[in-house]
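For the sake of clarity, the format in which proteins appear in this thesis is described at this point. Each number in the token line that follows is a code from a learned vocabulary of backbone shapes. One such record is shown here in full, so that the layout can be seen directly:
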Amino acid sequence: MDRTAHVTDRPAQRAIAYDPGAEAQSPHFRAERVLAGNWTGTSTVPSRGLYPHQWSWDSGFIAIGLRHVSPLRAQIELETLLAAQWGDGRIPHIVFNASVPLDAYFPSPDFWRSSTAGRAAGAPRTVQTSGIVQPPVHALAAWLVHCADPGLSRARGFLAGVYPRLAAWHRYLLHRRDLGGAGLASVVHPWEQGMDNSPCWDAPLARITPAPARSFRRADLDHGAPEDRPTDLDYGRYVRLATDYRERGYADGVSDFAVEDPAFNALLIASEHALARIARELGATGTARHARAERLTGVLIERLWDRAAGMFFCRDLRNGELIPERSVSGLIPLLLPTLPRNITAALVRTLDGPHFGARLVPSYDLLGEAFDPHRYWRGPAWFNTNWLVERGLRVRGDTERADVLRDAMLDTADTSGFAEYVDPHTGEACGATGFSWTAALTLDLLQAKGANGAKGGDRG
């Protein structure tokens, strides 16, 4: 079956076909318009200027929102990403658009050299990608997309097509990336965890000799204020780590940077539960996957839970120690349905307490020395992490807190122009505006609020 068929048909145009009357003044319409403007025909860029390619976890969140506008487009979003999967199972964090100039984004395809440096790992030959990964939200997204229109999904063979690729992706993470030997997946670059510039990485990054500033040119500063972006020193360390990984042929192992992260693993566990549901839909049993997810929840607690802090911390595999920095990553395990009640209660107390108690959940500790309300992942609130916390509160049955957070997100997303991230106290826009996952997750929250009123409800 041609899975890209009809990509310029109704779903691609639906968001711009509204009558520009009262409906055009609604947040729903404005969010749809963002996604229509960022749609390329087979996928959605995070933003036209700053991020002109397809990003892995962005596409997962985008598909979750797109399912309310066009389930077909949401399916194609994920299929396009998965078509770039490597032979070893990894889903690269960037799939490059060959029509975009090389200097529009750095690191560009000629930096990653995926088709040559990644040959031994099975990098695709027909498309250029990065060599690192991002958090595994994809199976959860695929299940939610299927639930939006099961008839269309079954007619296209959507789940049957994506399931083997998602299963291979999870095998890669659970085996090739189990660098600590306890069962959790590890990240080997800050970009892989998604919260690129978090203070959680400061101590591990201090070991890294930065690449010379003259050896690369940052394209991000063409689109964002320097005070909102990572420093040149940190960026030099990111480049060094990526270069070293490329020179090893993207072979995995404990290197200068290897970290077990709670959000990355919580999303892996949540997606294992989703894969179990997908397996059942396809006529198989999901029992083993549910059991694995429950076992990994126990390992997550054993390895990363800090009772005194009331949250999860990252573990640095180079020295075996927890990194005592409070990040929103340590709250995202609220998503997990079998997390013990005493731990979820402690997480909620931490969420309400002085370290995170703002209008929107900050990306980093409000009381931390490194807190900055505007600098990339060092304090601002992001809509995808807030969406994950909101969803976690609903999993816990805490609808009152979830409703308050949802309403704050909806108000801030629209008034900020669907910003990439915002000041957690004031909602002031930072980074790019017209950001795709902000618009997509706005649609998801609006759908839930409209369908279930103030109670919010289950979103699949």
